[in-house]
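Retro notes (design track)

What went well: tokenization of the new backbones is finally stable.
What didn't: we kept losing track of which sequence belonged to which structure.
Fix going forward: every design gets posted as structure first, then sequence, in one message. First example under the new rule, 243 residues:
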């Protein structure tokens, strides 16, 4: 009996939201351009709340043949940004991703280091600066990475396609430990020199799946890896994905 008012409240709120959504005609979005000057050859960027003020900040990875660096731009909350700092990330860095790896409310950075066959982790200090780099070696050339919570434990995990030719065509999955480190790498076979990975729940079973594009050779087949082994939220522990 005590649950009745609570359920009624939810129903009313839900109805109001749907009504508001249908009350206004759909308007095509309009975008206005403003430019930010960054370092030479910006190759990749990531968005996250780096200083924990609720405003999404940007981390821009710029690289040349001999250098790579990350520049931090803190948001003013009105679409403008202020340069905060920049730091070296190793000369083969090619891709950057942001996520709060250690749960302190400040977005951390993970960088793919291409030919160096590694990724680098930089934990945020909370003021727009970052601590020292921590490297993780991986078997393949890492040209892109993705942070997402594959086992739904609230800790970001890492997907890193191995940009290699046959027979080593696979994607590395590393589960986050929630403190800025990751567990052991688990490899899953793919096709055609995997390059970029995206995640969504493609089969609507509640678990994040992966789709990976292969850049070279073979038929135009898109590998999709379904994550069907973590159905029980309370018992999700071991990484096990099936193609
Ligand atoms: Ca911010
Ligand atoms: Ca953090
Ligand atoms: Ca996780």
């Amino acid at each position: 009996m005590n649950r009745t008012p609570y359920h009624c409240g939810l129903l009313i709120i839900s109805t109001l939201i749907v009504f508001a959504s249908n009350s206004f005609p759909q308007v095509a979005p309009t975008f206005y351009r403003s430019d930010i000057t960054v370092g030479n050859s910006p190759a990749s960027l990531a968005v996250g709340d780096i200083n924990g003020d609720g405003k999404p900040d940007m981390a821009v990875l710029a690289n040349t043949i001999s250098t790579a660096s990350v520049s931090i731009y803190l948001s003013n909350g009105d679409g403008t940004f202020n340069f905060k700092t920049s730091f070296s990330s190793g000369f083969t860095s090619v891709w950057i991703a942001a996520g709060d790896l250690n749960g302190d409310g400040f977005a951390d950075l993970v960088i793919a280091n291409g030919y160096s066959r590694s990724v680098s982790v930089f934990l945020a200090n909370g003021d727009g600066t970052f601590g020292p780099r921590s490297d993780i070696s991986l078997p393949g050339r890492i040209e892109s990475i993705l942070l997402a919570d594959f086992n739904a434990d609230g800790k970001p995990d890492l997907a890193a396609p191995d940009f290699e030719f046959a027979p080593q065509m696979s994607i590395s999955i590393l589960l986050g430990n929630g403190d800025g480190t990751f567990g052991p790498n688990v490899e899953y076979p793919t096709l055609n020199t995997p390059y970029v990975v995206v995640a969504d729940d493609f089969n609507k079973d509640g678990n994040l799946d992966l789709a990976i594009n292969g850049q070279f050779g073979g038929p135009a087949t898109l590998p999709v890896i379904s994550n069907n082994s973590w159905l029980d939220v309370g018992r999700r522990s071991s990484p096990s994905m099936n193609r």
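Added context from the reviewer: Residues 100-102, 104, 106, 108, 123-124 surround calcium ion (ligand 2) (CB under 6 Å).
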